[in-house]
Amino acid sequence: MPQPPRRPRRSDLQLDLGLTLGPSMLTPPAWSALPTATQQTLTRLLTHLLIAHADSAPQPDIRAGGADER
Fold it and tell me: Are 60 and 66 in contact (CB under 8 A)?
């Protein structure tokens, strides 16, 4: 039995990040305008990201002259 034709996928307005139409005129909200729970979540996520990145970055070898010797 043949499948019915699919309807084209519609872009949900809430998920439209403006990435398809060139430069966007959207501006992010001010930090103080975000709810406290959102600020806490973003802070936690960014902290985890920075720690993960710092843990994976190669450390300079001080004995090999990798440090700034001013």
Answer: yes
Residue with the bigger pLDDT between 41 and 10: it is 41
Let me know the angle formed at the C-alpha of 21 by 20 and 23, rounded to the nearest 5 degrees. Answer: 105
One-letter amino acid for residue 46 of the chain:
L
> How far is 58 from 64, CA to CA, in rounded Å?
14
pLDDT for the residue numbered 2 = 73
Q: Of 3 and 1, which is predicted with more confidence?
A: 3
Per-residue model confidence (pLDDT) at position 34? 93
How buried is 34 (Cβ within 10 angstroms: 0-12 exposed, 13-18 middle, 19+ buried)? middle
Phi, psi of 30 (to 5 degrees): -65, 145
